[in-house]
Amino acid sequence: MNAVHFNGYLATFRLNFKIELRSIWLQAVIVAIPLIIIPFMLPSYRDSLRAQGHLGANGSEQALPGFAILFAMFSLQLVLQLFFQEHEWHTWDRMRVSAVSLLDLVMAKLSVSSMVQVVQVALVMLIGTALYHYRPNGSVLALAAVCLVISIVLTLFGLLLYIFSSSQNMAMSFNNILGMLLAGMGGALSPVSGFPDWAQKLAKGSPVYWAMDAIGKINFDHAGMADVWPDLRILLAFLLALALLATVLFKRGVQRKE
């Protein structure tokens, strides 16, 4: 990236970051809600985990990462707003004829969106750790890596929702439906081990499954980076596939909204 492109990217990043700050109250709510819900779910999760042989579990091992990821799916509306508002404000064409390239524009928006996702998941995990005594026995570095990668994967999923949707309302509806589906089937709401056999096989089609599988290893099996690498590798494959699909379809998706 040359200096001109970097300057364009940086200027667009700052603009979108300032726009996101205006909705910081909504981000705070999205962080707060899972932390409020979790204590009601801890007893059932504790019993479920202990029935699986994790006798020292207190339920936070399932509830905290599961709800962090679930509500990260809901916060994709912030990703969608960053793109759709350009059309609502009729500023997309002006941005396109400016010195900012399309790549710089998209990458700046994705950077801000990814940052929001990462911070949100991190806050839920950190505050929840203090409140609900979450104590993984594996590598904290590996846990951070999993949370980082799944956050970026979710951001790219949000980008694809923008591409395929003709309006923001349609994208929001798809996000709520598909978000619950991917999170639920991936084990964010309950351990996949309790699913029927056919559902356990289907769960592997959700990136959330691989994140929760890696976090389960970190929680109970003293897992480090090497142990969760197979899960991370599949998450990175999801990331690459979503990025390639978005690259191929992006311009067509924008044209459909013009």
TrEMBL record:
InterPro entries: ABC2_TM, ABC2_TM_bact-type, Nod_factor_ABC_transporter. The chain crosses the membrane at residues 24-42, 62-84, 105-134, 140-164, 176-195, 232-250. The keyword Ribosomal protein does not apply. Keywords: Cell membrane, Membrane, Transmembrane, Transmembrane helix, Transport. Residues 25-253 form the ABC transmembrane type-2 domain. It is a multi-pass membrane protein. Pfam families: ABC2_membrane. This is Transport permease protein. It comes from Bifidobacterium kimbladii.
